[in-house]
Amino acid sequence: DIVESINIIARAARNALLVTSDEEMKKEMARFEEPRKIIKERLEKLQETIHSDKGKAVLKDLTDARAIYLQDQDNFINLVNSGKKDEARQLMLGSIRKSQGNYVAAVVKLIDFQTGLMNESGKTADVAADNAVRLMLLLGGVALVLAIGIAILLTRSVMKQLGGEPSYA
Question: 115 to each of 45, 63, 129, how far by Cα in Å?
Fold first, then answer.
């Protein structure tokens, strides 16, 4: 969601510089709001769910990169709203390109980290499932041996009480 939102903002910024009317430009600039909100919400959820030191460090790198990108974005918005499209274009091709690239790289690093955690959890779950299957087979075997033993004991007990084979008795 974060990467998609970054891409929506980037397209809206590009479009704001390409359109010719102020009305179209304002529409494009208004497209910044929803993706920014989505990014903020997703980061808040991530902050609540990441507990490891390494995860917190990766998330901090992301939030630091986001802060720089947001500052560039705000400068871009101010320039465009002030009608300084040439300066906004230079900012986009310079500072924003770099800060956006760093931001996306930080998001990808977090995605890779989370993917690694999921893979580790999957391996742990596989081992637990294998152990559970072995335990069930072992318990099933023990139950079978016990059932056969109890059946033999019951049969002997009944035979002793009857005094011989049931057909003879």
Answer: 17, 19, 21
H or E element that contains 119: helix 97-162
pTM exceeding 0.70: no
For residue 102, count other CB atoms closer than 10 A to its CB. 17
Query: Exposed, middle or buried by CB within 10 Å (0-12, 13-18, 19+), for 76?
Result: buried
Measured between alpha carbons, how far is residue 11 from residues 22, 23, 24, 99, 142 in Å? 17, 17, 14, 16, 66
| pLDDT, tens only, 71-127 | 999 999 899 888 888 999 999 999 999 999 999 999 999 989 888 888 888 998 999
Render pLDDT for 8-53 as a digit per residue (tens, 0 to 9): 999 999 998 888 788 888 898 888 899 999 999 999 998 888 888 8
| Cα–Cα distance for residue pair 132/23, rounded to 1 Å | 64
Residue 83 backbone class (left: φ over 0; alpha: ψ -120 to 50; beta: rest): left
